[in-house]
Write a structure and sequence with these properties.
Blueprint: H1 2-24, H2 42-45, H3 51-59, H4 74-81, H5 85-93, H6 108-114, H7 119-127, H8 142-153, H9 156-163, H10 169-182, H11 197-208, H12 224-232, H13 248-254, H14 259-267, H15 282-289, H16 293-301, H17 316-319, H18 325-331
Helix pairs in contact: 4-5, 6-8, 7-10, 8-10, 8-11, 10-12, 11-13, 12-14, 13-15, 14-16, 15-16
Length: 332
């Protein structure tokens, strides 16, 4: 009798253990279209949501690809407001579609980039099927969002603030661009406004800082690593006035690009003799925004004319700062 009782008890305990394992089993079949708490938007995600909270919802049969009334999936909400990157990892492991877009056509990858998600999260999304060439509803490719992130990540104040949270934003921005390019992102693709990607990068550096870029410790500077990565993958370096009115090299100089970047642009076909608005040459632009003699030496070596005047009759010498003696020696 005692032996039979023990056998029965053992079987009962084993059954209970199996039920407990089933309750925690990651293979619980989701109910198609059922979103549970994960689609309650701000009501759920603005709270102190943990990985365990999300896992519990998934164990209740939530479909990781269900959409709420606004067309958002749980993964999109997690990318927007989830406190822990591990929540994103969990949803991806449960089959969340990394290539999904919201109702307006903006991909999850775009939300991840503009919300400053880490290079690790971006890599997870790409490895889970996110399209490295996806565009938002305005036709802007995700790679353009990545170079915008890289531009803002170069600002000294941003770098300092991020470092307090243990993040090296310049390094992360390089890793993000590398990941996108490795997954097939097209560096020659233009955005909805037809802006070449290098123009976007230099313009955002200018926007993030001032017209005194790189002359001040408080100003952002373009990163040669970003420029080199993009050029190696086919980024446009020279455009015609009919094709696009802004000079990429001119914007690079305006952004405070140093000799290393100027050398890269020239090596990839930039025209040192190009003129911009009001007849200004690249030497005119350089005279206004850089004090690096090497930049002027490179432009002159590639055919730039120091005697050329703009439409107002000014030469680059006329615009050079009086205290930039080395530069004036080259121009005047």
């Amino acid at each position: 009798m005692v032996a039979q009782f023990l056998r029965t008890s053992a079987l009962a305990l084993a059954a209970l253990a199996l039920l407990a394992l089933a309750a925690c089993d990651s293979s619980v079949e989701p109910t198609p279209g059922y979103c549970g708490e994960l689609c309650k938007g701000e009501e759920f995600w603005f709270g102190d949501v943990s990985v365990e909270d999300v896992r519990a919802e998934l164990e209740r049969g939530v479909d990781a690809n269900a959409r709420d009334g606004s067309g958002y999936t749980p993964l999109l909400w997690a990318v927007l407001y989830g406190d822990s990157p591990e929540i994103i990892r969990l949803l991806l492991d449960r089959g969340a579609d990394a290539s999904a877009k919201d109702a307006g056509g903006t991909p999850i990858l775009t939300y991840a980039l503009v919300n400053g998600r880490s290079s690790e999260v971006i890599r997870w999304l790409l490895e889970s099927g996110a399209d490295a060439n996806a565009k938002n509803e305005h036709g802007k490719p995700v790679l353009h969002d990545a170079v915008r992130f890289a531009a803002y990540a170069s600002h000294p104040e941003t770098i300092k603030a991020a470092s307090e949270f243990g993040r090296d934003l310049p390094a992360e921005s390089i890793e993000i661009i590398q990941s996108l390019l490795e997954h097939g992102a097209d560096a020659s693709a233009r955005g909805g406004s037809e802006q070449p990607i290098l123009f976007v990068y230099f313009a955002k550096i200018i926007e993030a800082g001032s017209e005194d870029n790189c002359r001040s410790v408080r100003s952002p500077c373009p990163d040669p690593r970003v420029v080199e990565l993009l050029l190696e993958r086919g980024a446009e370096v020279e455009v015609t006035e009919e094709d696009y009115t802004e000079q990429i090299m001119g914007y690079a100089l305006w952004a405070g690009a140093g000799a290393e970047i100027i050398a890269l642009l020239l090596e990839h076909g930039a025209d040192a003799t190009a003129r911009g608005d009001e007849g200004g040459t690249l030497l005119h632009t350089a005279a206004l925004f850089t004090a690096d003699p090497q930049v002027f030496q490179m432009l002159l070596a590639h055919g730039a004319d120091a005697t050329a005047a703009d439409d107002r009759g000014y030469t680059a010498c006329d615009l050079a700062r009086q205290d930039d003696e080395d530069v004036r020696a080259l121009l005047c």
